[in-house]
Amino acid sequence: MLHLAKLITQNTVNMVSLLAAARILATLSMSTVACFVGFTLGYIPSTIAALSKLNHLDLSGNNLSGIIPEELGNLKNLVSLDLSRNNIQGTIPHELTKLTKLCYLILSSNQLSGQIPITIGALFNLEHLELSNNKLSGPISTGIKNCSHLVKLKLNNNSLRGNIPLEIGKLLGLNVLDLRYNFINGSIPFELGKMTVLTYLDVSYNNLSGSIPYFLDSMSWMSFINLSYNYLGGEVSENLVNRYSLQAFIGNQGLCSEFGGFPPCITHDLPATPPTVFDHDEYAPTAVVTVGAVITFLLYTISITSVLYLCIYNNKKSEFRSTITKTMAATAKTGDMFSIWNYDGKLAYEDIIEATEDFDIRYCIGTGGYGSVYKAQLPSGKVVALKKLHHSESEEPTFTESFQNEVRILSEIRHRNIVKLYGFCLHKQCMFLVYEYMERGSLYYCLHNDDEAIEMHWTKRVNIIKDIAHALTYLHHNCTPSIVHRDISCNNILLNSESEAFVADFGTARLLHFDSSNRTIVAGTCGYIAPELAYTMAVTKKCDVYSFGVVALEVLMGKHPQELLSSLSSSSYQNIRLIDVLDSRLSPPIDHTVVQDIALASSIALACLHSEPKFRPTMKRVSQEIVSRRKMVLKPIHEITMTRLQKHEMFLVGGSDN
Question: Which amino acids does the record list as binding ATP (predicted)?
């Protein structure tokens, strides 16, 4: 009896027909292990079911396409099945759940779609389940609780939705749980605290909300935790700060701590509210009138927060603003407003409800702590994004007041790189905003999705940095009084179909009055906040400049530059080359002009990250430098060091905050 059958064909791969492969498989009917290495079958033939005695089947890394044949479910003696690193499409056949002896099921890095079989729990001997890097959708099956022997569960890099099932807490032998890069919402279930052998937990890049569970404090055996890029709020304990790096919590706007690099917990705000969808009340007025081009707060990444203070042009007192002001005043008396003004006429409320089928979840393209975003095609054919605010937030008088204030004030602000607010609805039973729709979504999504990131070549990335710089220059230097955004991050930059960048989410923005205090509660997203805010609490334009520097590096690196930022003052930084930090998913730039642009953008970013605000350049200076495309005397790209870029003239000059 064969114990291992290896089919290795390196030079004759293309000469082996599928029929020949089937014949070979037939001769292996008594094999217990079949490992196919470097053998391109084209697809998995159903005749493979003839290997009835097979215990282990490894077809990984063979560039296979097609589907998983349901006949594999007849291999009743199969203990391990590895089809990873191929191009297999279709769904995971339910027939695989008949393989009750299966201990290892590895289907990662394919093009599988559909849902995880609801009968997955039938694989009660399963120890390793790896379905990562596919296109799986829908919820995580609660039947997973029956896989009581699971040690490793990897479902990362899919499009899974819904909550983390409470039943996962019953997998007491689970050692690794990886759910990152999905669309999972809800809170982190307390049932995970029962998993006494769990050492690796990664739920980053999801839509999780609520607070960080207290049980994580006591799970001292955990070697790795990553909760980054969600909508978590509340205080991070000293234990967690000391045990894990800032990278584990970055990108959660609502987190605070007296330790580490977090904003201090000055107030006792409630944790982020989980997203909900509301039905329209019968008492809804009949029309919504649209507002012309204005700035927005968040579109897809959803992090509207706190009270908003922004600038108005002192020299423009238009009839348009007067009309809105009167409408707002009427609203203050009645408590209802379901009309928005524009010169283009009215947009029927019913059209919006019909376009989203009363905000049906099928039209939801994003959720967050304060609302949900829906994509809607209006009767005119125009596609817009609708931000529906959560009921709990819309009932707060202070929020309603600031919401009205934002719409009224921002109606004056227009810039090509700032997302437009077309209209809004303010009513005690329903609040939503109508935004310009951005086809590619957030910059964060594009950078952390391999397909999207590869499409963003070097010139596009430099142009994105340029677009962001121009928008911030407008806010800082062309508005009176100036606007400080306070939450510049990749989550709050949106891209259209042409990869043009637009600044969004002005929920925490603030205007700078020279005759009043600009001290405030720290706001922003962890990992992007200027370090001086932790102790000065003073809002300045240089806070935005620092955040811009982080985003610019993230665009070039393809990931958050936390490690690079941590090494800026270390001796190891001296030897870091530019080419070593650039996004490795793209080919290294060769064209001399492109290399110059990347080097200049990197130098500017480093200048913006100076620990002393007074030495950071102004955004106006940044825009001037980018537009001028000043040539730097450079060596070949593989010889350019970050230290050399940091010593560029701009880093030394800085600029005033005016």
Answer: 387
Residue 397 CB burial class (10 angstroms; 0-12, 13-18, ≥19) = exposed
Residue 102 lies in a domain: yes
Domain annotation covers residue 221: yes
Please tell me the distance from the alpha carbon of residue 558 to that of residue 340, in angstroms, as a whole number. Answer: 40
Is the pTM for the entire model greater than 0.85?
no
User: Taking a C-beta distance cutoff of 8 angstroms, is the pair 124, 148 a contact?
Assistant: yes
Is 141 in the same domain as 234? yes
Tell me which of 410, 436, 462 is where a domain ends. 436
Q: What is the pLDDT of residues 230-288, one digit of tens each?
A: 888 888 888 888 888 777 888 887 788 877 667 777 543 333 333 322 233 333 333 33
Both tokens assigned to 603:
């130098």
Output the average pLDDT for the chain. Answer: 76
- Return the SS3 of 550: helix
User: 274 in a domain, yes or no?
Assistant: no
Same domain, 30 and 166: yes
Among the listed residues 327, 288, 306, the one whose alpha carbon sits nearest the alpha carbon of residue 430: 288
Q: What is the pLDDT of residues 189-245, one digit of tens each?
A: 988 988 989 999 999 989 898 888 888 888 888 889 999 888 888 888 888 888 887
Are 558 and 451 in contact by the 8 Å Cβ rule? The answer is no
- Assign 229 to helix, strand or coil: coil
CATH number, domain of 521, equals 1.10.510.10
Domain of 191, CATH number, reads 3.80.10.10
Question: DSSP assignment of 309-360, as one string?
Answer: -----TT---HHHHHHHHHHHHHHHHSEE-----TT-EEEHHHHHHHHTTT-
- Structural domains in the chain (count): 3
Owning domain of residue 375: 287-436
Q: Could you tell me the maximum CA-CA distance found in the chain, to the nearest angstrom?
A: 90
Tell me whether residue 362 is exposed, middle or buried, using C-beta atoms within 10 angstroms of its C-beta: 0 to 12, 13 to 18, 19 or more: exposed
Same-domain pairing of 385 and 431: yes
Location of structure tokens 């600038």: 311
Same-domain pairing of 431 and 554: no
Chain centroid to CA 35: how far?
38
Same structural domain, 293 and 171: no
DSSP 409: H
Measured N-to-C along each axis, helices 458-477 and 619-628 cross at an angle, to the nearest 10 degrees, of 140
Annotated catalytic sites, by residue?
Answer: 487
Kindly state whether residue 194 falls inside one of the protein's structural domains.
yes
Question: How many residues comprise the chain?
Answer: 658
The amino acid present at 514, given as its one-letter code, is F
Q: Is the pLDDT of residue 84 over 50?
A: yes
Question: Does residue 501 share a domain with residue 377?
Answer: no
Last residue of a domain, one of 436, 458, 477: 436
* b/e code 56-76 from CB counts within 10 Å (16+ = b): bbbbbebebbeebbebbbbbe
Give the pLDDT band of residue 313 (cuts 50, 70, 90). very low
Give the annotated binding-site residues.
387
Examine the domain organization and report whether 586 and 643 are in the same domain: yes
